[in-house]
Design a protein that fits this description.
CATH class of the largest domain: Alpha Beta
Strand content: 15-25%
Largest sheet: 5 strands, parallel
CATH topology of the largest domain: inorganic pyrophosphatase (n-terminal core)
Shape: globular
Number of domains: 3
């Protein structure tokens, strides 16, 4: 699929030059900083060296004082507390965090994760009934609940109070709970709006610690859970999330909880003894590793079996026990992959054989036989293939239910909200959402959604866009350049790894196709002095013939480190190629 290359607006030259001088760094690097809104030495220092002290006061969040007061009352009166959370990575990490923190000083506490198939997303009546039957009088709700108006009333009738900790967009009415923590509340003055669900849970325990003279240092141990949630839930790695992710990654690389270490072990990222006799991982863990290795395994438990296993793994303190759970979850992840592959192939065939589906501005596909646990993944795959707003639906417990994924600059939450009259439930974000509806409403919903997309999407939005930070020459890439560039991490939404463009490149004659689809090459400027760079272009083996003919090309790429046989070198990870003729 042809992609649009869009070069970002470059930094104001005077500011770029100023930063280059005060920081003694390359002009291209200071330009990246200005593009990030960084204009001074102090702002650069904060960006490159995040400090934990810069986290906001948790009591700035609306209802935080009420939440802490209610928990304190429960502890004082020895009430039974139930920590309840969604079955995905964000929810299970949040439950593990809050449960473990409170369990250190208060034992009359349990946790509950709803079953994806029988209870569905969010707070369930079954979960409230379980709480009532087990003498629970306070439920701490994590990563869901912001729209649970009726569920909150149902719980209150059974003398069960809710503290809701959510990060999804609220509806017009806020549940009448003991406290509702959500930075996206219109009336919430909290300065940072993009916390993960686990991040909101962290602010809750930060507030409790602050109120009860628990040293903040005691909370650092939970940041590995927070960074896993940040990575898996694809929230922006800016502001407070950048600080939390920075320290969470540091903890993961130095001293992760045994449950996460067990996941990494089954994923073949193993601990090795360093020359200093410390145990370290055989590669430095990044946000990308969490997205592709840790997140899917934690998710797999809830997709295929029970997300309770994910929480048990994350709260386990015995490594051998954790390893047993991790192996079970890894098996479930393999099973999830098979369901995912089958459903994706079905959906792709369904689209290819239907002219209306193939030529539409959006994708809505439904098959009652698809596994409910993989429809979100399938939606992501279809979005990658056809690049348009996508909804994938299946049948579960009397309802059509599914997941939605979107493309750049198209708000799928608003699109689904416009069809709310045909839905039983929905919730989510700008780029991802979940929904359920009655089977008899499917056609009406589909037509409503299609009409909204047709009226609100542009042809330009339907062409994949590659946003490039700046244009550089190969000779600009030095070891010092790369060393400073690495300090821009952790990378993720809102702080993507810089993408560069270089024009007029040729291969030195070493181009070859590897793994059938990938292109391995060595690039150089034929008319500009400088060393050649090795490069990899995944899924771009189709360019091989032109590359071998010596046709000049432009490439957009990330600058990365490659390790082969113990030798580390700089490598260009080429995302797209355009030939000059």
């Amino acid at each position: 699929m042809e992609k649009r290359w869009v070069i970002k607006e470059q930094g104001e030259e005077q500011l770029v030059q100023h930063l280059s001088e005060v920081l003694d760094i390359d002009h291209n690097l200071s330009n990246l900083l200005v593009q990030h809104g960084i204009h001074s030495f102090d702002e650069s220092k904060t960006y490159f060296r995040p400090v934990i002290d810069s986290l906001h006061d948790p009591f700035l969040m609306k209802d935080m004082d009420k939440a802490i007061k209610r928990i304190s009352t429960a502890v004082k009166n020895k009430e039974k507390i139930l920590v309840y959370g969604d079955y995905d990575v964000d929810g299970t990490t949040a439950v593990a965090l809050v449960y473990t923190f409170i369990h250190h000083f208060y034992k009359n506490i349990d946790f509950y994760i709803p079953d994806r198939d029988t209870e569905g997303y969010g707070i369930s009546f079954q979960g409230i009934d379980y709480a009532g039957e087990n003498g629970v009088s306070l439920m701490i709700i994590l990563d869901c609940g912001i729209k649970a108006i009726e569920k909150t009333k149902y719980a209150a009738e059974r003398n069960i109070d809710f503290i809701i900790c959510d990060h999804h967009r609220p509806g017009e009415e806020i549940p009448s709970a003991s406290a509702v923590l959500d930075p996206k509340r219109i009336d919430c003055p909290y300065p940072f709006k993009e916390l993960s669900g686990c991040g909101v849970g962290f602010k809750l325990i930060q507030a409790y610690a602050q109120k009860n003279n628990i040293p903040f240092e005691d909370l650092i141990q939970y940041l590995d859970l927070v960074v896993v949630s940040i990575a898996a839930d694809i929230v922006p790695i800016t502001g407070e999330n950048r600080v939390l992710a920075h320290y969470g990654l540091d903890l993961l690389n130095k001293n992760p909880r045994v449950g996460i270490e067990a996941i990494l072990q089954v994923g073949n990222i193993k601990r090795v003894r360093s020359p200093k006799q410390d145990y370290i991982f055989n590669k430095e863990l990044t946000v990308s590793d969490l997205v592709f290795m840790v997140g899917p395994r934690i998710n797999a438990a809830g997709r295929i079996e029970s997300a309770n296993n994910s929480v048990r793994l994350l709260i386990e303190d015995n490594y051998e026990n954790a390893l047993k759970i991790a192996h079970r979850i890894n098996t479930l992840n393999d099973e999830r992959k098979s369901f995912d592959l089958a459903a994706t192939n079905d959906a792709l065939q369904m689209i290819s054989e239907n002219d209306e589906l193939r030529n539409a501005n959006c994708t809505v596909v439904y098959n009652p036989d698809w596994h409910k646990g993989v429809v979100g993944i399938v939606a992501s795959r279809l979005t990658e293939t056809y690049y348009r707003p996508t909804i994938v639906l299946t049948y579960s417990n009397g309802f059509i239910t599914g997941s939605a994924r979107s493309i750049k600059d198209f708000d799928i939450y608003d699109a689904i909200d416009s069809c709310i009259m045909h839905l039983e439930h929905f919730g989510g974000h700008k780029y991802a959402a979940g929904l359920s509806l009655k089977e008899e409403n499917f056609d009406n919903f589909k037509n409503c959604f299609l009409n909204y997309v047709n009226n609100h999407i542009t042809k330009e939005q339907l062409i994949p866009e590659i946003e490039i930070d700046t244009e550089i020459l190969l000779r600009d890439i030095s070891s010092r350049f790369f060393r400073i560039l690495r300090q821009f991490a952790p990378f993720g939404p809102g702080n993507l790894a810089p993408l560069f463009i270089t024009r007029g490149l040729v291969d030195t004659g070493k181009a070859r196709v590897v793994g059938k689809k990938h292109l391995k090459l060595e690039v150089v400027h034929p008319d500009i002095s400088g060393f050649p760079f090795s490069a990899i272009a995944f899924q771009q083996g189709h360019h091989y013939d032109k590359i071998r003919e010596g046709i000049q090309f432009s490439a957009c790429y990330h600058v990365e480190e490659n390790e082969w046989n113990g030798v580390k070198s700089i490598q260009l990870n080429i995302k797209d190629i355009k030939f000059d003729s």
